[in-house]
Design a protein that fits this description.
With 402 residues, the chain is of the alpha/beta class. 32% of the residues lie in helices and 26% in strands. The protein has 14 helices and 18 strands. It has a nine-stranded mixed sheet, sandwiched between helices. The protein has a seven-stranded mixed sheet with strand order 13-14-12-15-18-17-16. A two-stranded antiparallel sheet has the order 5-6. Helix 1 crosses helix 4 and helix 7 crosses helix 8.
């Protein structure tokens, strides 16, 4: 994706370019670009420059591209009214996740909250819509301008105060809660060391402990041993994709929770031992990624009256089909040692032309296997490549709903 040109003597600063988009002329121009095709950008820019200044056209085209990308996170109704920066689109919280978290804060009685590292204001918007007054803080002037514009565009200016400052200088006295979303990306991409976040996780934890309630957004791959004992850890997935982890202070210290959206459905840890290993039954359950990240496979297995197919593999098996939001179910028709020749013959015999290949604990790459199968036929099948009691195994079946 191309970005708005870097500022020079003719284009002015990024904040000036953004301010131009907020004028009546800039808003009219953005409205005309709602459905524009980026593949036709050159022709579009040439046409628009006959009517608008070149710098404004460049800024508007960049913003139009960002809005199109933001639809996936914010929905069309909000995305085409809001404003974005490239980092803002990339790092902002998905609307469904932000709304869920705002609901938790509201249920905890939070009415005034300091949102430290607010970015373009995605979480602040959800909190304000939940009736919470938000002090939204970021140290980047352009980002603050964008957050302020978003609050105004969505009619939330009375509930969102945007302040451009270093979060370390903010006095959160008088606020019911603190939310911190440290930057986890740098010039070289994603940052995995929590102390390399901006601000560092240790600072964020210290800030959280000064407030009655707090939530810290962190990477879902955080090691469990790095989680403070006085924090609840929650892993959140949306539509089956793990989106983030959150450390809650002032909620349920020591708890481990997996929350699945939409819903929400939450599975809370009970400290159960690992499930027993048993032979593959009629049904195989694939726990949601949030359940696995939260180390709650045992809790899911108990709900399903199931066991593991291997002590190192997060697949649960059972002879019963039970409804659960925490795992996808497959009815298993075949349990076979991995053998490509036998697999090809079996699929040919059953006239299988479409396969879904999943893997867990297997060195075989699904795409490579799919190419080697050379499928023909009208039927479909799911192939799960895994280990059963330590042995490479292929399970054949199809997804089912309880």
């Amino acid at each position: 994706m191309r970005h708005v040109p870097a500022p020079n003597s003719s284009t002015g600063s990024p904040t000036d370019a953004f301010a131009a988009l907020l004028t009546d002329e800039g808003r009219r121009l953005l409205d005309t670009l709602r459905d524009y095709d980026p593949a036709q950008e050159l022709a579009t820019a040439t046409r628009l420059r006959r009517e608008y200044p070149a710098e404004l056209v460049s800024a508007a085209l960049g913003q139009a591209r960002l809005r199109q990308r933001a639809v996936a996170k914010f929905g069309a109704e909000d995305a085409y009214r809001m404003f974005f920066t490239p980092n803002g689109v990339e790092q902002s919280t998905r609307k469904s996740v932000a709304e869920y978290r705002a609901g938790r804060f509201a249920a905890l009685g939070v009415r005034r909250l300091a949102d430290l590292c607010c970015g373009i204001g995605g979480d602040a918007i959800a909190l304000a819509r939940a009736g919470v007054f938000v002090l939204a803080v970021d140290r980047d002037p352009l980002t603050c301008d964008v957050a302020r514009a978003n609050a105004a565009a969505l009619g939330l200016s009375d509930l969102i105060e945007v302040r451009c400052a270093d979060v370390a200088e903010i006095d959160t006295t008088g606020y019911d809660a603190v939310f911190v979303d440290p930057a986890r990306r740098g010039g070289r991409g994603r940052i995995f060391d929590p102390e390399a976040y901006s601000p560092p996780l240790s600072w964020a934890i210290g800030a959280a402990r000064t407030a009655p309630r707090a939530a810290l957004k962190i990477a879902p791959g955080v090691p469990h041993e790095a989680i403070p004992e006085d924090a609840e850890a929650e892993w959140i997935s949306d539509g089956g994709d793990v989106k983030e982890a959150v450390l809650w202070f002032g909620a349920e210290p020591g708890a481990r929770r997996a929350t699945l959206l939409p819903g929400p459905a939450s599975l809370v840890g009970e400290g159960l031992p690992d499930p027993a290993v048993r032979p593959v039954g009629r049904y195989l359950y694939e726990p949601d990624g949030a359940v696995i990240r939260a180390h709650l496979v045992a809790e899911a297995a108990e709900e399903l009256a199931g066991g593991l197919i291997d002590e190192t593999i997060a697949y649960v098996t059972s002879d019963e089909l039970r409804p659960t939001p925490y795992a996808a179910a497959y009815e298993i028709t075949d349990v076979l040692p991995f053998n490509l020749k036998k697999l090809k013959a079996l699929l040919r015999e059953r006239e299988v032309g479409v396969v879904t290949v999943k893997k867990r604990g297997s060195a075989v790459e699904p795409e490579e296997l799919r190419k080697k199968l050379k499928l023909e036929g009208v039927n479909s099948c799911t192939i799960l490549l895994t280990r059963v009691a330590g042995a490479p195994t292929m399970l054949l079946g199809h997804p089912v709903r309880a």
